[in-house]
Design brief:
single chain; about 90 residues; alpha/beta; three-stranded parallel sheet; 1 helix
């Protein structure tokens, strides 16, 4: 996984990058349709995402929040810090 390219903006073939993303997701037990990804824009746009966004890649999005159980959120960027939080389900 050290050189596994997950970016569609590097010139690698879309097919190879798609396969790499599927491999990474499989290692954590996820399928592409269980995820939402976003391209960092360095702005202040926060997307509220849910089931209707499953499998989507959002453009110009700087953060995402969701209350949808089982929906994995990921960001696409080069060099930047990120924070990830997960909350247990309420009893």
């Amino acid at each position: 996984m050290v050189s596994l390219n997950l970016s569609r903006s590097t010139g690698d073939s879309v097919e190879a990058v798609t396969e790499n993303n599927q491999r990474l997701l499989a290692t954590v037990g996820l399928k592409p349709e269980q995820t939402v990804s976003a391209w960092l824009n360095h702005g202040d746009h926060v997307a509220v995402v849910g089931k209707q966004h499953q499998g989507a890649a959002l453009h110009e999005t700087d953060a995402m929040i969701s209350a949808t159980p089982g929906l994995a959120l990921s960001m696409r960027f080069a060099i930047a810090s990120r924070c990830c939080f997960t909350l247990p389900r309420a009893a």
